[in-house]
Amino acid sequence: MSPQSHNTRLTEPRWVRILLLTLALAFVGLMLIVPLISVFMEALRQGWRLYVAALTEADALAAIRLTLLTAAIVVPINAVLGVAMAWLLTRFQFRGKAWLTTLLDLPFSVSPVVAGLMFVLLFGSHSIIGGYLEAHNVRIIFALPGIVLATLFVTFPFVARELMPVMQAQGDEEEQAALILGASGWQMFWRITLPNIKWALLYGVILTNARAMGEFGAVSVVSGHIRGQTNTIPLFVEIMYNEYNFVAAFAAASLLAFLALITLALQHGLAYWQQRQYDRAQRATAVIERSPS
After folding, report:
1. Measured distance CA(18)–CA(21) in Å, rounded
2. How many Cβ atoms are within 10 Å of 235's Cβ, its own excluded?
3. Each residue of 70-113: pLDDT tens digit?
């Protein structure tokens, strides 16, 4: 047991702990829980029938389909790219590695609106690339490819940033041993690397999926707000709210909030499962150390 648990002079006074706990609970209640509950209450204020009707209206269904389709495309791509990027930055030494590591966080530091504008400048109809593609009947901006590109940009770092600390902490001794014993590169990845990073990878995938479904700024710039075609759920919420269709706006918002709650539940379950695996490994190690040789 740690010394802090015995020596009360090394711990915070009781009133400080109570004050901090009260402030934390008040902040969480006022800034997170109450607004979340109010969204569901407003969505259901005029009855369940109107709520269901708002979510099954043609434009709402199109927004839901586009959001799920975008997430279904973006998440696998970013999972693969995130693993590749984490592998590159943790297993290899090369010139410019520090710069590449810094650039990995660019989507976190750049405003999503700026990111959307970058893709408009690059693939818009007045750009060289965009003009060439449109001449060959390939439309990027104001279409699904533009939405996917913008979402890929803003969600790119999540998987890599979850994997890199884990891969750095584990090192590459097990992978080197597998290669020395004759394993191929794929066998080493599938049987050694992937099992070691699977929980961090799942965590990154969950975060990527949550951001992909809720992204607004970058998608708003490249989508063109075409009803029934390029509106995702966040854009649909904005349009309905601006048109004073509060039932549809809050119904779609509640759906997004529900998806966010599912994400939180998955995160919590994953963290709980990881902790159980860690505790079990610690107990097994302790038993081996206590057993007579």
Report:
1. 5
2. 24
3. 999 999 999 999 999 999 999 888 898 889 999 998 998 889 99
